[in-house]
Write a structure and sequence with these properties.
This protein is of the alpha+beta class. It has three domains: about 15-275, BirA Bifunctional Protein, domain 2, CATH 3.30.930; about 290-385, Anticodon-binding domain (Rossmann fold); about 405-480, C-terminal domain of ProRS (Translation Initiation Factor IF3, 2-Layer Sandwich), CATH 3.30.110.30. Helices cover about 35% and strands about 25% of the residues.
């Protein structure tokens, strides 16, 4: 860290800036268990608001919450060959319990498709039992070699939705519906613009028919996969004998979907919005939307100002407000404290302000100061928070577009870009997995998604970025977390 008060500037070392910010803003801390993290109240508060918003959206589509065990019989994981191969390097296995070696090792869930579809097979007999629409809020364990707070840890929190349907089209509709819900949350709540699309075969979820994802650009021009939604086809249904009697009297395997978003989104929020002063939290996911900093010197002023602060707090019934009552700290020190933690709005109020029946509001995103009559606060504060939310989204979207490349470029130029500042590069791809793998080896850039129509270039690329053969699809290429 540059000194005890300042963060390393993003332009100097983006990775150091990120790590320092997570720790100093008290979002999370390192656990005694290597690769795990402790999520502190400031970080968990963002996750709680995330849970509430997404939970309401899921339930509005008929999804209900349930809970499935942390431990999965090892044999379950081996029933779907592609799935076990995809997760084998990340799996943690329990071999002993109660002082004895277990008859069958238990896998600590890296994801829950196997155990959930094993249970669905018990519950579903007829088309009348479908669809099954289940979500769980849980933790998972993936034995990552390189970890970073929020972005990649051995254990993390997430939601995972799992559904069973009578037809492919119903499953595909659900897969795309959830993708849209994730986009709405990330853009409308987290103010984080995303590009949606389908993953290539090499990048899709292990065991899926097809995977859709949302990719967001961070301030270092790398991509962050913010959530995924998978059409699993009938692969898991066949592995777990998840059959049902059709309406015409025949028998068929169910069509499944799974979809998930995790605490990694908090890392995305940090890297999308943070600045060299610290965190900037969009109001809709800010545990504290407005902090009141009372300013006074003597006891008489103190009593008067704190009473006014209490009245203001009680009048703002639809806003999450906190009063900084700490003694022995200068107002300036309090400003720095709350700026570091990214509180969207700060209110400064002192005796002179009360004499004028006003206060001063300071926006965290733009630093703009604005005197506001106390009588107008109940109208002004929610409006201003809404403006901050919208302005943060627009700023992030404009930055993404300014660092996106759509015009045809040579492969040498592409490599130069990826070796330098990076970008979102929209370019043609021949569809050959070997060509895709070679680009990854040359540049560490991958196909993030084959973009949905609204994100594609007006003029479709005609040749592959690397080999020059005819393009079969436009791909979004970028380095990623």
């Amino acid at each position: 860290m540059a000194d005890d008060q300042k963060l390393t500037p993003r332009a100097t070392d983006f990775s150091a800036w990120y790590n320092e910010l997570v720790l100093k803003a008290e979002l999370a801390d390192y656990s005694p268990v290597r690769g795990c993290m402790v999520i502190r109240p400031a970080g968990y508060g963002i996750w709680e608001l995330t849970q509430r918003a997404l939970d309401d959206m899921f339930k509005a589509t008929g999804v209900r919450n349930a809970y499935f065990p942390l431990f999965i019989p090892e044999s379950f994981l081996h029933k779907e060959k592609e799935h076990v191969e995809g997760f084998a390097p990340e799996v943690a296995v329990v071999t002993h319990g109660g002082g004895k070696k277990l008859d069958e090792p238990l896998v600590v869930r890296p994801t829950s498709e196997t155990i959930i579809y094993g249970m669905f097979a018990k519950w579903v007999q007829s088309y009348r039992d479908l669809p099954v629409l289940i979500n769980q809020w849980a933790n998972v364990v993936r034995w990552e070699l390189r970890t970073r707070l929020f972005l990649r840890t051995l254990e993390f929190l997430w939601q995972e939705g799992h559904t069973a349907h009578a037809t492919h089209d119903e499953a595909e509709e659900r897969t795309r519906l959830i993708l849209g819900i994730y986009r709405r949350f990330q853009e409308d709540w987290m103010a984080m613009p995303v590009v949606t699309g389908q993953k290539s075969e090499s990048e899709k979820f292990a065991g899926a028919l097809r995977t859709y994802a949302l990719e967001a650009m961070m301030q270092d021009n790398k991509a962050l996969q913010a959530a995924t939604s998978h059409n699993l086809g009938q692969n898991f249904a066949k592995a777990f004998d998840l059959k049902f009697q059709t309406e015409t009297g025949g028998t068929d395997y169910a069509w499944n979907t799974s979809w998930g978003a995790s605490t990694r989104m908090i890392g995305g929020l940090i890297m999308t919005h943070g600045d060299d002063l610290g965190l900037r939290v969009p109001p809709r996911v800010a545990p504290i939307e407005l902090v009141i900093v009372p300013i006074y010197k003597g006891d008489a002023d103190r009593s008067r100002v704190l009473e006014a602060a209490e009245r203001i707090l009680n009048s703002l019934t639809n806003v999450r407000v906190e009063i900084d009552r700490r003694e022995g700290m200068t107002p300036g020190a309090k400003y720095f404290y709350w700026e570091l933690r990214g509180i969207p709005l700060r209110m400064e109020v002192g005796p002179r302000d009360l004499d004028k029946e006003q206060c001063v509001l300071v926006r965290r995103d733009t630093k703009e100061k604005r005197p506001v009559p106390l009588a107008q606060l109940s109208a002004v504060v929610p409006t201003l928070l809404g403006e901050i939310q919208n302005d943060m989204f627009r700023a992030a979207r404009d930055r993404r577009e300014a660092n996106s490349i759509r015009e045809p470029i040579t492969y040498d130029k592409f490599r130069e870009i990826m070796d330098g500042d990076g970008a979102f590069v929209y370019a043609g791809w021949c569809g050959d997995a070997a060509c895709e793998a070679q680009i990854k080896e040359d540049t560490k850039a991958t196909i993030r998604v084959l973009p949905d129509p609204e994100f594609r270039s007006e003029k479709a690329p005609t040749t592959c970025l690397r080999c020059g053969r005819p393009s079969t699809a436009e791909a979004l290429w970028a380095k990623a977390y």
